[in-house]
Design goal:
Elements: H1 12-18, E1 24-30, H2 40-51, E2 55-62, H3 66-78, E3 84-88, H4 99-104, E4 109-110, H5 112-126, E5 137-140, E6 143-148, H6 152-174
Parallel strand pairs: 1-2, 1-3, 3-6
Antiparallel strand pairs: 4-5, 5-6
Helix pairs in contact: 1-6, 2-6, 5-6
């Protein structure tokens, strides 16, 4: 039988239960080629969020261009209508993949475990190619920011295994 920690007033499960069940989210797809009609990864995020009872307050597709990504994310992070910003695409190592470099400058806190866990889970599915992802997470003030690769399979993995189970909890902690 595991020993309980007398200094821990709530378990992680209790924190999850005490967290909001409805989070207001913005979904951004970073792509030079996709449209709302062809954006299966962004749609997978929207579908997952809505099925879990969360609200998508804004959805956008933006080219992988820092001058387009930066002002959009800054605006969303300052909006009272957005508690979490979820991005797909632009996290690879190709010259055009600038999303992590653009967003890292905005973070007030990093969540290194998110990217580490996503790469670990991806490795179990796709092998060593998982190391090519620069997906990461953090906070911009009180707004949660999480990036995902552009692959629909990677988005589903991140949403199912990492984001949906902890989204309310992350938002709750970000506001403390």
């Amino acid at each position: 039988m595991p020993m309980s920690n007398p200094f821990q007033s709530h378990s992680a499960e209790q924190h999850r239960q005490d967290s909001p069940t409805k989070v207001r989210c913005a979904v951004i797809t970073v792509s030079d080629t996709r449209s709302l009609k062809t954006d299966s990864s962004g749609q997978a995020i929207v579908d997952s969020l809505e099925e879990a009872g969360h609200e998508v307050t804004e959805r956008a597709i933006v080219p992988d261009d820092p001058t387009r990504i930066d002002p959009l994310v800054q605006r969303l992070a300052q909006s009272s209508e957005v508690e979490a910003i979820l991005l797909t695409g632009g996290t690879g190592i190709a010259a055009r993949d600038q999303t992590p470099d653009t967003l890292a400058k905005m973070l007030t806190k990093e969540l290194p475990g998110y990217g580490e866990l996503l790469r670990m889970l991806s490795y179990q599915e796709i092998g060593p190619a998982a190391m090519l992802s620069r997906a990461f997470g953090g906070l911009i003030g009180e707004t949660v920011l999480l990036t995902m690769p552009g692959s629909t399979a990677a988005v589903r993995l991140a949403m199912e295994k990492l984001i949906l189970p902890e989204l309310g909890h992350m938002v709750s902690l970000a506001k403390r």
